[in-house]
Structure formats: structure tokens, C-alpha cells
Amino acid sequence: MQKYTFQHFTQEELLEGVKNNDSKILRWIYQDQFPKLEKYVLANNGDEQQAKDVFQEAFVALWKNAKTGKFKPENGTAIQGYLYQIAKNKWLDTLRSSKNKKTVPLENIPESWDEETDNKESNFEQMESSFKNLGGNCKELLTRFYYKKESMAIIARAFDWTEATARNNKYRCIQRLRENIKHQKIKSS
Amino acid sequence: MKNTDSISQEEFERIERYLLGAMRPDEQLSLEKDLAENKVLSTQFKKVEAVLNGIEEIALRENLDAFHLEWDENRHARKKSHKIGIPLSIAASFLLLAGFFTWLFWMRPDANEQLFATYYQADPGLVTAMGSSEDYAFDRGMVDYKMGKFAPAIQRWEALLPEKPSNDTLHYFLGSAHLGLKNTAPAKMYLDRVTAQESSAFREDAFWYLALVNVLDKDYEKALLNLKKSNHPEKEELIKTIKEK
Q: Which of residues 63-102 of A touch B (CB under 8 A)?
């Protein structure tokens, strides 16, 4: 395997960085790969906004697959190649679906549709809007702990709390978030 | 039947520790056994998993937007510089030539400034969650900071100091913002406060930026000391460069 993908990061470092939400690594991958995908989308009937949307969806897919172990790099540019391939396929899917857009008669929608297909996207949207409605401290606390992987000790210090308070507040924030999600679901049903 | 919407703190933290990989193997096995036998627990597990994954994904998407904004701004800056027309570019060539000689004789940046410029990249900043935040002022400063508007960021953050005099996040970004403006004295003061806090998450990064402050101040001995305490990927390279000077 080619050891270095560029001056600093090996594929292993990039993969670890993606798994651990390392901002420097994520930024580097994003800004290194986006121009290539944008060029492809612009050359294939798309615009800048569509390129951004499709690339970000592909990035999230890479991130999820890296975290769950579904993706393992096999060569020196595997992560970049994988990301580009997902993004390109997503754009081709978009083109295909806009060409072949047909309405589906209600009776043809399978019963499992609501549970399995529609829900993933709408669940995330509900989650996102519920998260945005949390107070600033809750958002910061949850982001620091679950995304930035900061320890309770560090978080407690940042908020001038004790560790026990930070831990209790984290639980309360999660409960509040779950309540918000529940209300969102009731509202949208 | 037990309501799967409510979960005790103890149950929640048990599931959370499993999902974060913080459990001992025997605890893991015990939870897996309980999950197989207890439908309510299994449903709660799925709900907690979805919420924790969702929080991470939301934060990631916010970061992606920030990366995009940053990339887009750089692209516009590059485009602007390419828009100079041909006749203008000839005139510009003369100006550049004249400018080069002026620079060569009077304004040539010192070696320390060149070294600083080679290794300095501002800390990317934190994810901001604007909205009903109680920390609105801090977040607002972070938006300025991320856009390279260091002076207004400093103004906003310094106003928060009386409230949070020992907050390492605040000190770290105040130090970073001052360094962005090459104000070495205040940058050093704030970054020193961060390195003094042994458990600060920013401590090792603060050592790296302190070393860059030292480079700007031509204090290479201190730069070497701070570099040794940093874990920055370029620290060895910078140590070597300084030693070769």
C-alpha cells in the first residue's frame, strides 16, 4: 500500500480521522475532493448547489461506512476514490430519477414503505429540527460529548460544573431531545 | 407494558457505554443477553442508538457546511485575482517588478515571519449552533473567527471574560484570534493560560501555537521547548528547521 496520500496523512490516519470526527482530516478530505466532483456535476447537467448537496450526502455515507467498518481502505487513495465514486453514483441516480420521474399510484406503495423507506429521511429531519430547538448549553454539551468525544471532566470545566452535574445535565438534555422528537412526530402525523 | 419512551439515567448510561465502546467484555455480554431477552430494553436500545447517531450526524453536517463555506470563499478570492485583464496585467507586471525591488531592499519579511507563514494555519474553530443559545455571544464570535474576522471575534470574546475568567476554550480561541492578527503578546498571554491547565483539551494545540508565537518573537529556544510538548504532525519538521537555523 502506498504509505502517504499527501505530505502528512496515511490512509489509516485518514480513516481514523473520519471515525473520530477529526476536524482537520474531515476538512482536508472535503476540500481536496469537492472540486473534482463539482467539475463532474457541472459537466453533466448539474449546478453548484446540486454538486454541494450530492457531495455532502456522499461524505455522510463515507463517514457512516467508515464508522461501521463497512469501508476499509485497500490502496493509497482508497478513501478519496470511494468518496468520489459514491458521489458520482449519487449524481447519476439523481439524473436517472429526474429523467424517469413517474407518479406511483397509492395502491402500489408497499405497506412497509412508511416504516422502512420514508422514515429514515423524515426521522433525521425531525431529529435535526428537534436538536435545533434545544437550548444552547444542551447543544454544546451533546456536541462536545458525542461528536468531539470530549471527556466529562473537560466538559464540566468548560461549563464550570462538577462532573456529576455535567453527567446529569447530559441525561436531561437527551431526555429533552427525545421529548422534542416525540412532539415533532406527533405534529407531522 | 412498560413505556419504551421513558428510560432511567442508569439504563440510558448502560446503553450509552455499550454504544461508545466503553464497556468491559463481561458487561457487554450481559447487556447483549438482556437485549435478546427483553423486548422493551431492545426497543429502548434502538431509540438511544438512533438519537446518539443523529447527534453526531447533525454536528458533522454543520461541519461540512463550514468546510464548504471556507472552500467557497477561497475560490472566490482566487477567481478575483484571475479577473485582471491582459493590458492591466502588463501594467501589473511593471508594478510587480517595482514592488519586488522595494520588497527586496526594504520590506523583505524576516526569516522568522517566513517560517511562521510556512507553518501557521489558524485553528479551524468550533461547531457553532446559533439559535436560542445562551452562549450566543461566544458562538457569534466563533462565526467571525471562522471567517477570519479576528478583531470582532476578540471584541466579543473579551467581553465574556469577566463571566468565565478560567474558561480554557475562551482563552484558547482568544489566543488563536490574537495570533491570527500577529498580536504576539496577548496571544502568548491567553495561550499560556491554556497550557497551565493540565487537563485542557486544547493544551497540546496551545503548545503548537505558542511555539509559533515564539517563532514570530524570534525566541527559538522557547519555541523548541513548546514544540516538544505539542503533538502537532509538523512539530518534528519545525524543530529540525529551527535547529538548522
A: 63-64
For residue range A105-134, what is the model confidence (pLDDT) as tens digits? 444 444 333 455 456 667 888 899 999 999
Q: Is residue A166 a contact partner of residue A144, using CB atoms and an 8 Å limit?
A: no
> Do residue B129 and residue A139 have CB atoms under 8 angstroms apart?
yes
Q: Is the dihedral of CA A53, A54, A56, A61 positive or negative?
A: positive
A21: CB partners within 8 A, 6+ apart: A147, A148, A149, B56, B59, B60, B63
Instruction: Say what the ipTM of the complex is.
Output: 0.85
Map grid coordinates 419512551 to a residue: B5
**Residue among B164, B165, B162, B188 nearest B176 (CA):** B188
d(CA A43, CA A37): 10
Give per-10-residue mean pLDDT for chain B (245 aa): 75 95 94 95 94 95 93 78 61 72 61 85 76 67 85 88 84 92 90 87 90 91 90 88 84
> Could you give the CA distance from residue B79 to residue B67 in angstroms, rounded to a whole number?
18
> Cβ of B51 and A160 within 8 Å?
no
pTM for this structure?
0.59
Partner residue opposite A136 with nearest CB, options B71, B133, B164: B133
Interface touch B131/A154, C-beta < 8 Å: no
- Directed axis angle between helix B235-244 and helix B203-216, to 10°? 20
Chains A & B: contacts with CB separation below 8 Å: 123
**Residue A2: CB partners within 8 Å, gap ≥ 6?**
A75, A76, A77
Note whether B70 contacts A31, CB cutoff 8 Å. Answer: yes
Taking only the tens place, the pLDDT of each residue in A57-81 is: 999 999 999 999 999 888 777 899 9
